Amino acid sequence: MKNLLLLFIIFAFVSCKKSERYGPLNLKNGQEVELLVSHRYGADNDQLLKLPGNVDAGASLSGFDQREPGYTYRVKATFKYNENPPQDASSYYFFFEKINSKEQYKGNESFTVQLITNYLVGGPNIRLSKTGTEYYMIPGKLQLTYANSTIQNELEEIWLNAQEIRTNWQNGQRPKWKAIKATVVHDPQQFGKAYLVQQIQFIN
To answer: Are strands 32-37 and 116-119 parallel, antiparallel or unpaired?
Structure first.
């Protein structure tokens, strides 16, 4: 009789754990969902949406290494809950499973990307690197081209400051600016690989 009671308690506990829901969308750990991924890779309004209904997913998507700027995706993902997340990390996220569909963005609407990222650990960091004469927001993946020589000069100024910071990181050197906002469009000459910078706004 005691064994039966113990089995019942264990079963009830496991069933309760399986039915627990997490995050703003009240999802179960391991629940499969369909997500809409924006063409605005790394932008201010790079919002992850849950389908159907285009609802804010409320968590990040991990493991989607195939993502290319300029394409909208419908992807299958699994909701994951971690009771003991790493420090400064969320306890829940989505893990990429597969691409359901991929569609090229045909518009020319501009959007904003931030060239200074603030981390809880390590402070602000300039999101710009340079290989030869080419500037990159994400090394080897997302290039920043420029609409004119003025913007080219501004990118070079940002890059020089980034080099100074990386050289003097032990002294706690920080960027010259509080924020840098770049207004961009998808570069038609290098679609899916580059943003064409139309304007840069420095915030002191």
So the answer is: unpaired
**What is the SS3 assignment for 35?**
strand
17, amino acid identity: K
Half-sphere exposure of 17 (CA within 13 A, CB side): 9
How much is the pTM? 0.83
Q: Dihedral (C-alpha) 33, 192, 138, 146: value to the nearest 10 degrees?
A: -140
pLDDT digits over 45-68, tens only? 899 999 999 999 999 999 999 999
Separation CA 57–CA 96 (nearest Å):
13
Measured distance CA(154)–CA(129) in Å, rounded: 13
The residues facing 73 across adjacent strands are 37, 102
8 A C-beta contact, residue 145 and residue 184: no
